[in-house]
Amino acid sequence: MSLLVVGSVALDSVETPFGVKDEVLGGSATFFSTSASFFNPVKLVAVVGEDFPEAHVQFLRSRGVDLEGLIREKGRTFRWKGKYGYQLNEAQTLDTQLNVFQSFSPKLPESYRNPTHVFLGNIHPELQSQVLDQVKSPRLVAADTMNFWIQGSRQALLQTLKRVDLLFVNDAEARQLAGEHNILKAARAILGMGPSRVVIKRGEYGALLLEREHIFVCPAMPLEEVFDPTGAGDTFAGGFMGTLATSEKLDRDTLRRAMVMGSVMASFTVERFSLDRLRELTQREIHARFSEFKRLTHFEDLGPLEG
């Protein structure tokens, strides 16, 4: 199976109650591809500037990420600066410098045009549609979006959603997109816009998968140490899509396994700043946490209620 991701590769400056990191590796496509690479090879399409450190390129290569679609252009790399409070639920954006990302127009190499699975990262919905114009009959197309596009480019987003099989959004974005306060009603309204599945990311409260006749609720892993939630949603999507790309089936069991694996990968990301935890992560640790997740959430064998 082949997995294509199109999104941002960036330099992040992050402040949390537990420390400050300046110009560390970030971006939606970076977190996604690093996470997915533990399960399946990834082809990445993004743009960086002349100042993008070669060490970051080598790290992505070391993860087996295909970088033929990573373009280096004259100018500065996309930069984001954010700050989190103690609840770590949402970042306060302090500065955004689009730089070369402002004129990003994804052009897929010929070897990228026949993927089985596509993930459209959080970019303008018109750019997401441009990507779909260049690929040939993928088995599954998933997309992410955000409140900025929902509010400012709604019609373009609605057109893109007609071509998407699965949408990743957080709970606030789902409510905004659907115009519904209740999260289940919001998810069902989104299903009416085109996707056959929607995954609603809820941070420390887990995630929700909803199809027309199927709901699966996945909790988040309880953690004693959470340092930096930046990129957790994209890491979740990477674990989810990477798991799907390894399977010939797209049944409910596979989707549920993908949800749990997405949560597993996100739980590792937040334990350190940037991608530092994923740099040293092993398959043994992933399997152990997946097993722990099953132990924490499994209750079918507890027996019937008494009385």
UniProtKB/TrEMBL annotation:
* Gene3D superfamilies xrefs: 3.40.1190.20
* Transport among keywords: no
InterPro entries associated with the record: Carboh/pur_kinase_PfkB_CS, PfkB_dom, Ribokinase-like
Transcription recorded as keyword: no
Question: Which molecular function GO terms apply here?
Answer: kinase activity
Q: Which domain of life is it from?
A: Bacteria
Where does the Carbohydrate kinase PfkB domain start and stop, copy by copy? 35-273
**Alphabetical keyword list:** Kinase, Transferase
Protein name listed in UniProt: PfkB family carbohydrate kinase
Q: Which organism is this entry from?
A: Hyalangium rubrum
